[in-house]
Amino acid sequence: MIYRADTGLAAFFTVVAAAVQLVLLFCLWQGLLDMQRDAGITPPAAPAAGALLLWYILLYVAAALFASLSLLLGAYLVWYFYLVVRLKKLSKSMAAQGCAIKPIKERFSNHKLVGSLLTVLAVVIACGFLFFGSYRMDWTPKETSTDAQVIEAYERLLALGYPESELNDLSDEDLLTCLRAERVLVRECTGGGYTNYNGKSQANDAFHMTIVAVERPFGRLFLSYHFRWDEGSHFYGTESFAVEPNYDIGSWLAEEFSGRVFYDSPDGTTYTAPYIDPGTEQASLSNWYINCFKQIYCADVSFPNDGTNQRGYVACALSNNIDEFTKFEGLFYYVHQNGRFQYPVKTARDYQDFNVNRPLLYNAPFERVQDYFVLFQNEDGVLNIH
Predict the structure, then answer these.
(1) pLDDT above 90: percentage of residues in the chain
(2) Would you say residue 64 lies in a domain?
(3) Which residues of 8-38 are buried (b: 16+ CB within 10 A; e: fewer)?
(4) For residue 290, what pLDDT is reported?
(5) What distance in Å separates the CA atoms of residue 185 and residue 155, rounded to the nearest whole number?
(6) CA–CA separation, 134 and 276 (whole Å)
(7) By the number of CB atoms within 10 A of the CB, which of 80, 157, 349, 384 ranks highest?
């Protein structure tokens, strides 16, 4: 199932639609000329039809060149209505000269045609919501590493207090990053900040978040954000997970992001997959009096409903050492789709934007859970998490 837009495929269909439109207009132009020839009108002429074809060509060229169509809107509208008037006069003139178009026998009434088209449209829309509302995930069975260093890192983190269920999800690369771990700090987050866009019953009680900070040699830190859903949670389309790692002066502090998602199948097999479109984005915090943005790391996923223990994590290594900041604030945002039907159609990532409370987005089938944690040094220089 594919939800996200394929830009190459979208561009192809756009070009095809434009080409079909131009071919139809060309056929109209040539058809008018042929009718005049058949009626003995010489020389045949249909300048309005040719100009209409030129109008569409220039419109497509302007769009392809990213021209500001708003500046040309007035001129385009005047020209368009002028062409329509000229075409109407041309049809009357041709009718007066014996070129009247004879209506063919009606084979399909307008009511039946409209009803059939509406039925097809309704079926297509329903199929889109039911079968094409999710990302295509690359699920593969989870493998257990046999590498000696990976096992050593795993056992070291477990001994330092890394929660076992979350530790089992770390990739070999992330485990090796923490091979020389010195200390582990853990905080359970409850998702205190909550936004529900459609008034449905809250599902954030079924969502659990665990933050783990690993101190490494030379004051370096490794952070992992683990989330999981309780059994019985339902998934209708897209999910989006975002983190925002900043320290006390508001600077971006993270590098080398990693992570993946999991679920357990009914037969007990654990499947894993990479996130969809992971990467940093600018989230808008703008309103009527100020325009500003914040940088967040986003990653998307679609979970199957026939599994359990849907979960995942995002991890990052910090680019600065502990001594270079007094306080580190880590925020996370999880957007969950709690319904299938929506208009306009949006993905969960669209709701990572903080300016979603607009009229068209009210009653959308999404809810957002957010919370934060703080890493700080006490008077003795010991790192704590709150």
Answers:
(1) 32
(2) yes
(3) eeeeeeeeeebeeeeeebeebbeebbebbee
(4) 46
(5) 16
(6) 11
(7) 157
Q: What is the average per-residue pLDDT within 270-279? A: 94
Express as a percent the part of the chain with pLDDT over 70: 78
Distances (CA, A) of 357 to 72, 351, 360: 32, 9, 8
SS3 of 347, please?
Answer: coil
H or E, element range at 49: helix 47-64
> Considering the domain boundaries, does residue 108 fall inside one?
no
Beta strand 366-377 with 327-337: parallel, antiparallel or unpaired?
antiparallel
Could you give the CA distance from residue 307 to residue 262 in angstroms, rounded to a whole number?
10
Containing structural domain, residue 33 = 7-103
* Closest of 2, 57, 1 to residue 25, by C-alpha: 57
Alpha-carbon distances of 380 from 111, 156, 377, 383, rounded to whole Å: 82, 25, 7, 9
Is the CA virtual torsion 113, 116, 119, 124 positive or negative?
Answer: negative
User: Model confidence over 102-111: pLDDT tens digits?
Assistant: 666 777 788 8
Strand partners, 297: 243, 280
Decide if pLDDT at 3 tops 80.
Answer: no
* Residue after which a domain boundary falls, among 103, 126, 156: 103
Residue 309 and residue 372 in one domain: yes
Please tell me the total count of domains within the chain.
Answer: 2
Q: Are residues 77 and 219 in the same domain?
A: no
Cα–Cα distances in angstroms (integers) from residue 34 to residues 28, 216, 285, 314, in the given order: 10, 82, 60, 67
Indicate if 185 and 293 belong to the same structural domain: yes
Q: Which residues of 103-125 are buried (b: 16+ CB within 10 A; e: fewer)?
A: eeeeeeeeeeeeeeeeeeeeeee
Give pLDDT tens digits for 258-272: 999 999 999 999 999
Encoding tokens for residue 19? 């080409």
In single-letter form, the type of residue at position 214 comes to V
Determine, yes or no, domain membership for 153: yes
Cβ-based neighbour number of residue 79 at 10 Å: 16
What are the tokens at 238?
């897209």
User: How many other C-beta atoms lie within 10 A of the C-beta of residue 248?
Assistant: 13
Let me know whether 281 and 344 are in one domain.
yes
Instruction: Tell me which residue has tokens 């703008």.
Output: 286
Contact 249, 114 (CB under 8 A): no
Q: How confident is the model at residue 292 (pLDDT cuts 50, 70, 90)?
A: low
